[in-house]
Design brief:
alpha+beta; 4-stranded antiparallel β-sheet
Length: 159
């Protein structure tokens, strides 16, 4: 499957993803990114590529997109999103469920996909910057069979 990791601190915001494609017991590596930047949003997805690419297209083509609007009006079956918007992290499941990551001391983190658990554990120990996101991706690859490098990490820095 995959892992998507998001981290927000007072110094910036980062989102990372792996490159695994897993289907019916086989896996390969893709060059198709599972994360993107659209305006002031960082968006990552887990689920079938077609459904998730349709979700990303909605963000690209909708005037004034928002997390709340997507969750209420769109939410594509099979596609889970992790979104960083205005220094907050949101998880949107394929049923339109919207979860806001809790901030503690200005820091929030979240992860989706089959490799989420080791990634969350790594961020619990170290949640400081983009290097922390890369370590969380490595932890997930080390402890699951469905996460593989190369990794991609995007950032949004405060204005």
């Amino acid at each position: 499957m995959t892992v998507i990791v998001a981290l927000v601190t007072p110094e910036g915001a980062w989102m990372g993803s792996d490159s695994a494609v897993v289907y019916e017991g086989s896996s390969t590596v893709t060059s198709t990114p599972k994360t993107c930047r659209i305006g002031d949003f960082l968006i990552g997805y887990a689920g079938p590529f077609g459904a998730c690419q349709s979700a990303v297209e909605w963000w690209r083509t909708t005037p004034n997109p928002s997390v709340q609007k997507y969750a209420k009006e769109v939410s594509i079956k099979g596609c889970s999103l992790l979104v960083i918007q205005r220094r907050s992290i949101y998880e949107i499941d394929d049923g339109g469920g919207l979860i806001t990551a809790r901030k503690r001391s200005g820091i929030a983190y979240a992860s989706i996909g089959s490799g989420f658990a080791p990634a969350l554990g790594a961020l619990y120990v170290d949640a400081t910057d983009g290097a922390s996101v890369r370590k969380a991706l490595l932890a997930s690859a080390h402890h699951t069979t469905e996460v593989r490098p190369p990794f991609r990490v995007l950032s949004l820095m405060p204005k």
